[in-house]
Amino acid sequence: MIVNRQFRQIGGSCVALLVVTSVGCGRETLTSADVRRFGNAVARGLEYLADPKTEAHPLQLLALDYLQERFGLEPRFRLDERSLKFKFKADEETFRAYRRLMDPTDPFIPDLTPFARERMMRLALHCDKLDATAVAELEPLVVRLSQGTPYEVTHAAVALRLSSNNGCTLPTLGSPESRRAFAVRLVGLMKDRSSIPDLRYEAMVAASLLGFSDLVPERLYLQLLNEQQADGGWRATNLTRASSDHATMLAVWALLEKTDPRKGG
What we know:
The chain is mainly alpha-helical. It has a domain at 31-103 and 175-263. The chain has 12 helices and 2 strands, in the order E-E-H-H-H-H-H-H-H-H-H-H-H-H.
């Protein structure tokens, strides 16, 4: 509950009024009608992402390819060079770096990406194809970034799931207690009122990937549904009216994780 002081002109005098505003008093749980909206929201989001006018960089296309396979979606996105160049309108040097990042047959080059977050994702994506020296670098990176900035925390969760999918164990974060503590940090990000929608969606996905979708408040899914735009996409921040390919991909992913029949959802 927030009390705002407002000034109004009454009878020629400026009078201070206390206006009480209720915050966060909406529904806390999803209804069956809300859940039925998920499918339509996902379909509209995928249509937005498939639109040729919507740009996406290769890592997002890789994520979309993963979603198609995991959830049995109708294939709409191809990871061939033509589609990448069409979708990823950036300089050739950056394009080549991302292409190498995604290519498991490319020899691992330590200096390929100077940023720890991208380096961690590279290692997690291909940990089953890299030598022991390279794989040994992955766990310290995941542990360090799991305590880092908000987007480092979310990416560390994704890296942990990717490495697990690829059969690479990370003992430090392998215990249920460690993973739950990780998920609690993610829940803190998604509940933080200062978090932009893009970060909130990413934290929702990350918590689900760690196996803790039950910790995600249901009201956040309702909020996500209500934030979908007329063009089918979602905004990354509230400071722009334009939909974002990254935020849309995350919103679709969050909805798919929530309704994954293998979880009984």
